Amino acid sequence: RICYALWDSGLQVGHAMRSIAESIRLGNKDMKVKTAMIDTRYLCGDRQLYDNFERAVRECFHSGNGDRFIRKKLEENLFRHERYGESVYLLEPDIKEGEGGLRDIHTALWISKVRWGVKDLNELEIQGLLSPKDLSELKGSQDFLWRVRNELHFVSGKHQDQLTFDEQERVAIALGFTDDRTVKGVESFMRTYYLHAARIGRWASS
Question: What are phi and psi of 128, to 5 degrees?
Answer without folding.
Answer: 80, 15
